[in-house]
Amino acid sequence: AERASKYTKRPNVFRLQTADWRVFLFQAPTPEEMFSWISRINLVAALFSSPPFPAAVGSQHRFVRPILPAAPSRSPPEEQHRSHEAWMERVADELFEHQRNLPEKRGRARDLDEYRLKKEYLLYE
């Protein structure tokens, strides 16, 4: 959750982005209440977050987003924090490597589309 700085039609609006990339806008009566909601939502999300499962293995070499866990984490907050830091490092390394290996401009459309999907996912993460 974060303040919806680009949304200017109404005051005290914040956006909530879910793990499956959906975005919801909420309006609070006051700025203090808006920031209170944002901090509480982020706290609960952090306490219940679990690392994603690896993507399913298939015979085709296609990019597939990891599977999100359906149950809350049972790890203590310190371990969750370490897990998130390690995940961010892996994603940053993977993004760097992905951007170094650009597909051919005249390559197959499927390869270009798959490259774009993976890049969008890595940037989102």
TrEMBL record:
Q: Which PROSITE patterns match?
A: PH_DOMAIN
Q: Where is the PH domain?
A: 1-46
- InterPro entries named in the record: PH-like_dom_sf (IPR011993), PH_9 (IPR041681), PH_domain (IPR001849)
**Coiled-coil stretches:** none
Its cellular-component GO annotations read: ruffle membrane
Q: Which PANTHER family match?
A: GUANYL-NUCLEOTIDE EXCHANGE FACTOR, PH AND SEC7 DOMAIN-CONTAINING PROTEIN 4
Q: What is this protein called?
A: PSD4 protein
Protein species of origin: Ciccaba nigrolineata
